[in-house]
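Moderator note: this is an archived Q&A kept for reference. The question asked for a predicted structure of one protein chain; the sequence and the answer are reproduced below.
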Amino acid sequence: MEEEKKEKKGFFRRLKDGLSKTRSSIISGFDNVFTAYSEIDDDFYEEIEEILIIGDVGIKATTNIIDDLKEKVNDQRIRDPQKCRELLMESIKNEMSVGEADYEFENRKSVVLVVGVNGVGKTTSIGKLAGILKDQGKSVILAAADTFRAAAGEQLTEWANRAGVPIISGQEGSDPGSIVYDAIASAKSKDADVLIIDTAGRLHNKKNLMNELGKINRIIDREYPEAFRETLVVLDGTTGQNALSQAREFQAVTPVSGIILTKLDGTAKGGIAAAIHSELGIPVKYIGVGETIEDLQKFDADAFVKALFDTGEES
């Protein structure tokens, strides 16, 4: 338990450091508004709205946050803008919360499909996720089914070695379906808890992507119907609204159950986590704020907002 607390504190510090660019962009703006206004009026709300939109929180999430804030202010009859800080934190947190049920795949025999375009950190995220699950005592197998991207199999093999989990792969350019078939056979024979499948993400050719994912899903349906299914899309947080567009496009070709949002340590647009959740109804389940396995963690709205507002709390 003590070790777990230390690990959480360590990640909180990394999260706080990682969100420094977003914090500089969003929170300094809030501080200015809280200080500049002596009363809560329409202009006050408009300023907050503008800051949220600049931070890539998105129109829908921003509207929900502002509406929630107004309701709290009215219910509690607050007049002093300075007293809105805690309420604003609460409203942002409400908009980003992820339920425990969203991690059901961790507790079942499951197959996790992971998609994402080149350069978003897909292979790295799969390796880190495998490490996280293994540390929970799960038996994990990786399948390198992104066979059309040069060196994808080698990179995933390197991460499998780091995480200490087996990997099923084939030659570059080989049929992804046959690799998935072999990986399922291996997962069943070894009674593995989680099979994670690295799949392609060539959005510029949606028809091929749809066909490929369709084929993989049919193989899983046929060979492993009892498995719980999870489809995660990896998105690069530094791309802001472009990440939201990618999520929307993947959602159009396959049922998406969650997002892995990477590179939050390199962006002032960390608010995109709220935008994705609100606009698409897809929860951000994991966030990445660095290169090591420990730098990918479950998304915790409470910790995220505390780190964003730099409250100094670490629990």
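Archived answer notes: Residues 123 and 216 are 18 Å apart (CA to CA).
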